[in-house]
Give the backbone structure.
Amino acid sequence: MDRTRDRSLYLMNLSLMLPELTALTVLGVLTLGEMYVKDFSQKFSARAACLGSLAVFAAVLFSWGRQGTAFGGMFGVNVFSLFFKGFFALAVIPVLQMSKEFFAPRLRFPGEFFLTLWITLIGLFVLSSARDFLLLFIALEIVTFSFYIMAAYLKRDLFSIEAGLKYLILGSLASAFMIYGISLFYVASGTTSFEGIRTAYESGQAASLITFGLILTLCASAFKAAAVPFQLWAPDVYEGAPTPVTAFLSTASKSAAFLVLIQILFGVFPAFETGRTALFSVLAALTLIYGNLAALHQTNIKRLFAYSSISHAGYLLIGLAAGGRAGLESILYYLAAYSLSTLTAFMVITTAGQLLGSDKVDAYRGLARRSPFLGAAFFIALASLTGLPPLAGFFGKFLILSAAVQQGLIFPAFLGCCAVAVSLYYYFGLIKKIYADEPSAADPLAVPAPTLVLLGISSALIIAAGFFPAPLLSLASSAAEVLF
Amino acid sequence: MTLILPWISWITALTLLGIPRQNLRLLKRLTASACLLSAAAVLFMVLNFDGRSGAEYQFVTRLSWLPALGIDYVSGVDGLGLTFCLLTALVSGASLFSAFTVSDRLKEYLVFFLLLSGAFYGVFTSMNLFFVYVFYEVTLLAVYPMIAVWGTGKKEAAAIQMAVMTGLGAVLALFGLFLLYQQGGPAVFDLEAAPRNLLAAETQIRLAPLFLIAFGLLSSLWPLHSWAPAAYASAPASAAMLHAGIKAGPYLLLRVAAGLLPEGMRAWADALALAAAVGIVYAAYAALRQKSLRLIFGFSGVSHLGYVFLGLAAFSAPSVSGAVFLVFAHGILTAALFSAAGTLSNRTQHDEIQAFGGLAQSAPFLSAALIAASMASLGMPGFANFASELMILLSTWSVYPWLTGLAVLGILLTSVYLLRMIQAVCYGKAVQAETFSNLRLHETLPLALLIGTLILFGLWPSGLLQWIEPAIGAFIS
Amino acid sequence: MILTTAWTLLALPLASAAFISVFLRKSPKTAGALATLVMGLCFALTCSLIAPYEALKNEGTPVLESSVRWLTAGLFTLNFGVYFNGLTLVMLLVVTGVATLVFLFSTAYMAGDPGTSRYFACLSFFTFSMMGIVLSPNLIQIFIFWELVGLSSYLLIGFWFEKKEACTAAKKAFMTTRVGDAGMMLGLLALSGFMAAGGIGSFDFTVLETALPSLGIPELAMTLIALGLFLGAAGKSAQAPLHVWLPDAMEGPTPVSALIHAATMVAAGIFLLARIFFIFEASPDAMTFIAWTGGLTAFLAALLALVQTDIKKILAYSTVSQLGYMVLALGVSDAQAGILHLTMHAFFKALLFLGAGSLIHAFHSQDIREMGARVLHEGRGSRLYLFKALPVTSLTFLIGTVSLIGLPPFSGFFSKEEVLAAAAHGPAFLFGLALATVLVTAFYNGRLFTIVFLPGGKTSSHASHAEHPLHEGSPAMTVPLILLAVLSVFGSALPIHAWLSSGKEPSHVAPHGLDPLALISVGAALLGFASAALVYWKRSGRLRDALPWLAQPARVLEHKYFLDDIYDRWVCGALEKKARAADLLERYVITEWTINGLGRLARWIGGGLRSFQTGVVQFYALTFLIGALTILFFMTSGWRF
């Protein structure tokens, strides 16, 4: 090969990796800051991380139109991967603010936590651009490993250690399934790249072997997405882990799982059409039933949100079962709307947890009376999660259920509708508690300023995405276009 | 014009959020101005609405909202929509006064109040089924906290029961919309353009029961009604006036079922008629046993809705116009009844009819208004309710003779429980006479306004029918 | 010209009612004066119509009509207007005439009462609705004013709403008439069903009369329609079995009873039968049913009057019995006799009620025994003391009683003769019943008259020594009495038949001279009156004390044939049971079991699902594996659901 071409090979992949490179430099800055600047971790590390994520988001915007692959086809960039990168970059900001607030009283050096968080972010970036199962697996492991650490971050809190340990054991089981599946792909097709396996599957050679491998990988990613029957870990881990980590788990980790599912089902195995619809409509139905009905009993707010995230995974699975461009579009929109609402809710839970001192649902009695702003933001987030119209959540559900109906999945769509009525019960029960009941203490709650700003922005975004969904929807459809 | 109608209230609701909680005077003035402005807009539409083309939509404005899915925000109003806008204007104007009597956390209450009345305006002015549904869900979102927080008695249980039941109804309607969307594409949503024979006959027949159950849940059709009396009994007066007065269920049923699924409606008309007739008699019997004033009015509402659905089931032009006219008359009547009940329970802090007495002596105007409203409710001529009930009975007799006979029995039963109420509340020895001594304007004006409207349209029914009949003619060609 | 007056006649009472209730609430005197003035004006206007109407009738246009469109319900167009023919003229005379006198009487009678302006407003509203019934050109408008009359009678009976009995009486009256109205509505709807089939859209009488035969309504349906409409009339005119409300309606002020429950409202039923006589003629079975109802009501109500001790109750039952006569006359298809008797009855019954009113005003009690005892006590033995103390009331009451019994020179005799003559053509048993009723009527009137006006025997303990002596009411009370007495005597001179008959010559020959039927009836009347005077010459107690051998039947009569108990147990009891069932069904079956049940079921399943959360990691790993295996099994075995 003459030198000019590989130099261009070299140059081209660098410009493609601009967001990852900026993320790495920010990582460097954080580590150096941690070592050399005096009490960097108390004051500056969170703000530096926020600025870093904004820089990364700018990098994503800068390289928006780019197309192409690097590292011999393993690392590909297109609108779909950039959509996810932008999504993760923005999702990190509220988590950073939550962790700054959550860890300040608990740890003397919260700086290391932001490092682990940042490494997860880099893992997510690489995951969204993976075009090869090995790279996919490596990125996935980076993300899950840092989640194990973050879940068990409160060394002296028994629950946090239990959560981390459980997530570690079951996570490694899932990774074992994943790697076993990938090895079957390799045996059948001789390569681990998406293209190679796709041509091998479509040409029909060793189809049963590949299908076997496909099921295993799907089970592994279903575990991450907390879909029935792999969802038993979620409530315990969500409750035990520190609240910012739970927030990040229920949004970023779940979105990563669905990213992998989409890559596999639509990127690599579009031919696996009938199996997908059958399998995922059953999984979706079970997840909806389990998530909504189990949530009726909860007295701990974080466990309630665990079951709520399971039920929302059910809706996303309906989107997967529906498939097609409309299905994919609705999944992407629903992920954005769901994550936005859940992050707003978790911001309120973190602040309220700090000020009220307990995660019990009864502690939230009369919250709106003590701090109207927190009450209003919580009301908007819960109404959006229930799917009441003028808010983003409703439009997400509308898109998913209409896509399902388009594909003729009548029963799952009907179940999705009834699940809204059941979710009405526990979400409105919560709303009633924060508005109707008498608070235990009457003094108003002092909410830190950055949280107020972030809460304001996110509630405004929820209402805006509900009233004017066109921009977000066009973004999602341009991302979905890539795979069809 | 129709575009801004819902937004007047919603924007004022947003501005209210900014105002400090203690400044009650400003809060009240802003809310009152919002309601009056919307009422003025409705008045303007009423004056400029040319009756001849009552069937076409007028004041139409079109905004492209989501080209990808072919859904765009179209607002306009035909004869039917205008009647309901007039009803909303009147009822929200009247319930404004009792809304001001709320003492605890008035600011949030007024925000939800404006949200609710704006949403109703939205339902009746939007011509795209998607937005009709969206606005209706907002009414649910707004009325739940009004009952759960500011209600009385077993308010939480009643509120959550109402939220779940109407939520289920709304969700079934949403599911029905999806099926429509799948069968007929986005063209189904546009009310103006949707041709009648868009869907094949047997799909219409398959879809109709879903919508019947959904809208039956929303407007307390007989077997699905039990959330209504409990919710209105524990709701604050203004919330009950708005939500019980403005019944959007029959309107939605007309727009969706009669508009898009005429074959389905005809196929399931017998079931609807039976449920309606049984509902009339059943609710009347149940009302006979109730001890609290607002529960009696709740059940009488359910019984009156029976006539509306009987008229809709007969599915002939006069019976459906009679049904719409009765929904209007019933709305005004229920608002008057709940306003009176609100005044009574505000002053005495209880709702038991046996504990009242001699109101005719202590508060002659209030008892006269209560008696007039009850007389309207039991079908006394001179009120709009009688004119509409007469239209319904005359036109459904040829379709369902036996069920109309049952409805006439219902009229009889209504007089039994209403007279029992009047005797307990208005007649007999005066009890707690001093509490009713100084009836202020905000307690008497809404009653006078509402009962005056009932009498006006009772003596001059063609005033409303000139709009309703052409619009209904378009449905039932 | 006639029609414009008719419109003004309709509008005037409503205007006065509205004006009083809005402006004159605080000034009862002016309200009374205004109402009486307006009623007097209406009476004058009606009299002014007699001459032009007769001229028009001779030119061959007996009916005038003008109406305006009110409402269209598909095929049907419902109009609102006025309709003027002979029957309307007669009824207008009766209504406005008696109303004017009663208004005049009320200004004095209700002087001290605080709610007097409300009283006059309701009374004017009543006359407006009564005018509405008389003037309405179609069936729907009659039904509308039918209910308005029911409403005004409810308001007036319950005028003294502090008294519990008045409220229950008002409610009972409203409900019973409402049952009648429901029957009428059903008849009307059935008729509308056939009219829709026959393509007829208007309910006007002129249109209906010509179109009815062409509708080809089957025999049974025609009978049911006629009976439905008759039920409406029976409800208003208190015919058995819907008569129970009239005696209780005496709780209202006496002028109200005089106007509404003697002269006008109860006569509305008879007017309706006469107005749509062509419908009843169309079904002979209905006619016989009506005749039998009328006859039986006449006789049974007269018997009930025997055992009453309250003067107003006696007169109430006498009204029910006389109405029975009119219905009997209509039943044997002699409408003109019925209407004639209605007119005459209006005069002497209004007279009797106003007389009773002035007696109550003087004695401050309604029990005839107390009245008799007090007269005995103050008259110190002289039987005719009352004639000296209350000359006008006693004399006019005597005239009214004699006219009611039906002795020759008085107007009551002529109208009763015509009814008996008509009954003679009918079934024999009914004719016998009618004659027997003449006897019983004479007996209870005799009893009333002797006990109150000619008291005898020792001064019993009933004497209540009121502080001021008996004295005659003010002229406002005596003038109406005298006028009505004049009408009761010379009423038959009015050319009622001329007006009623649509053709030129009066089709109905008035019986003159002494034919055998007149002799029998006068004999029976005299016999009845004399025997009552004999029985009660010494005693003034109840029937069972006076005639012990009649004790057993007297007990049945006192319990009003146990009709009220039957109604309470069957009608109200059944209503309560059904209401309790609906309430229980509502509270338990629907809310408790289904809705909350579903909620509890959901929570129970939720609980079950939660039991999977054992917290043991190995169990989670196990479910993970089982899940993966099941998926593998289903997917790879090629199974497709």
Summary: The interface with chain A takes residues 599, 602-603, 605-607, 609-610, 612-613, 615, 617, 619-621, 623-624, 626-628, 630-632, 634-636, 640-641 of chain C (CB under 8 Å). Residues 276 and 325 of chain C are 19 Å apart (CA to CA). The longest strand of chain C covers residues 64-73.
